[in-house]
Amino acid sequence: MNCEVCHLKDLEVEHYEIREVLRCILHTIIFHRALGLVRPKEIDLELFEITYVQCGDLKVEKKIDEKIEQLIGWVEKHPNKKSQICLSFYEVKNKQASWFTNKIERLYWEHWYVNLNVVQQPKTAYARSHSSKDIVDSENALEERSIRRACLETSLREVLFQIIRFVNDKKDHVPPIPNREGAISFPYEITIPSSSDSAFGMDMIKRMLQTGHPTMLS
Amino acid sequence: MDQIVSQFLLKSLHIILDSRIPSLYPNDRGGYTTSASRAKKSDKWFNLALGDRPTALDNLNFWHRNLKDPMIIDIILVHEGPNSSSVDNLYTSTSTKAMVETVIERWAVHYECPRVTPNMNDSSAHKKIYKKLIVLLRSLYCQMRFLPAYRIFRQLNSSSQMYNFDIIYKVSSFSDPFSRTEEAAMEDYIFSPVEASSGRLCVSVTYRKTLSDFNLVPAASLFPRIITDYVGSPATEPLRSFPSSGKVVEATSFPLREARPPSSSPFQRPHSWTSGFHKGAPFAQVSPPVYHMYRSPSPPSDFYGQRGPYSRSVSQRAISCDDYQLSPPFSPSPSHSYSPSPPSHISGCNTSPHHGRSETSPMNIPHAAAAGNSRYSSPNLSDPNRQHSLPPPSPRNSRLDPSSQDSPSRIRSYRKSESQRSAELHFGVANHYTGHKLLRDGRDDSGRFSGLLSSSGSPRIGFSRSSSRLSLQDDSDDCEFSCPFDVDDVDNSASPARNNPDSRRSSEPSFATMGAKSQDAAVGVLVQMLRTAPPLRQDPSCYSSPSLNMELGAGVTTSSGFFLPRKTSDALEELRSFSEMKNLLLSKSGARLSKEED
């Protein structure tokens, strides 16, 4: 089974927008992959005129929120850096013990990369503006912010459409639905690839081990 | 495989209607999401539990016999035409505003099956297809919320405000292509088809890129409408059903009303909350052919009945003001959906195909009352012989709150209608009543059945449903009879067509002659009548109910004005009828007590 990867369009967000944007995206993806019995839950975003759908599973909600907080923490430590969050779906395969690892193998069949550019808005002296120039500046800043917000909303919509398109175009790689209780049919994980410093190399090696070299597959 | 396909069609229709048609469900459906364990078996298809299916879906199997026919679902926005303005709304009768129907979305679900293959029972293949359909439905569900029409659906769904537009739908297996201008404003999205051994399932949508062109505003600023023939509140009788009104609506054309359906009967009051015994066999006859044909009338531009939880069952009524006024019960007119041009005294009654309500000035109360009639007939004919029992007044009062009907006459007529309803229920006032019904029903039936007739001749089969928000209008449209205590004398000054004061007067003595169906209801009615009898209580406090206070604010000063022209003789008559009723009730309660003691 091949592994499909989807890199979602980059989004430029402000710090306070991260949570809503990520919740929206991650829940939408998971809703499309939670193929067990769901009772869809609609959530309206506060910052945007967008309604997204959750699968209604509280554990999922909790896990997503935790990961988002992790990312926010990372972003605070690394300002003005591109951040990425990766949502991956895998199958659990009991691999025979090999000379690399005895672990249960995870066969990833889908990766979603959400790319965020967190911008720091220059602080405008709202409270301390005495001169007309300051007032004009703060007005301009507000205007810029609302323009940026509108652009972000459009981009977010595009990302959501992108998710739907991807989900619809590629269905063959989705494994058969196991007989499990609950909404979540496939195990998943949310990682922040940029969070570990020696991320790139280790990740590559890890992935190679987990998915297995083609010659090692029995 | 066929079962999968048919369930897929049902599910996709459910998803689409659920997210676009505000009044699809009579009750608030918020509760279903919390009960995780109680999903019906049918709801578990494709692992997407959506809650109870609307009744319309139960019909799908009936009309969509051939799975290979495409299922085209048009989501239609009913809105004010471009020649209307908000200023007009305030000062003139709004009958000149045309309600326009525009298709804002067209969904097509099609099982393309070019070749007939033997039904292969390959279960693994079916499982794969099923899995892919699950994913497809998930993305359909999400997509419904991402498209522009979802915002206006949410606007309509919020019960706190009334709007000057509505969303209705039409399901058919055929659709007229869009005009060039329409196409230019629309975008396509095609979901990837799911391949099956015998064909493939395709879902696609053509939707308007933006809805900002339409003037979709809350209707709060609109003038209050007067319903003089208000019958009662659907809130009190959620089980009440009405025959559907049928018309196959095309996006850009209006069907002809060619003939009166033979099964219409003078005793049918499809759009009213009238007493149960009126809804007898005639409804039963009518229901089967009509059930699948729904008219999609437009709401009056300036009256938006409350879209309550029950509105689905009562919202589909086809009544136009002209029914009330004109002696010929039906006058075919290709250019008007329900009525010919109104006579001159109905100055406001517009000639728009979708605007049967009289939009006359508040002076012309009977017209306005007729105008207040809902033009939607409920498709729900599940129980035409339902017993009618009057609810306590307060729930009905509370239903008035969100309504934009602010006039005191309306309030009075609302109460009148309640009383009247009880009168009809208990005492069977028939003659004038049925006469009016004939007018009204004729119109309604014509509206209802023309769709049936027109569609029967065409290859396409379809039905359309209105998601009217005019639940209060349902109550109003048949209240040709007002409470004996109402101030018709005042209102009649400008309404020559109010020809049933005599009938009302004659109905008063009949209170004493017939038995009430329920003691409690009779008592409730009496209380209601006493409370609303204007001559006996000259102060505005007779209308004081918590939910009506805000509407009274405007109406209080004028309400006393309505009282003035009443004569002493009228008051004496009413007093007499009160005492008769009182005697009747006392005798009955005496009879009941003795019965209970037995």
Automatic annotation (TrEMBL), chain A:
Top-rank taxon: Eukaryota
The protein, known as: Uncharacterized protein
TrEMBL record, chain B:
Domain of life per record: Eukaryota
Protein name: Uncharacterized protein
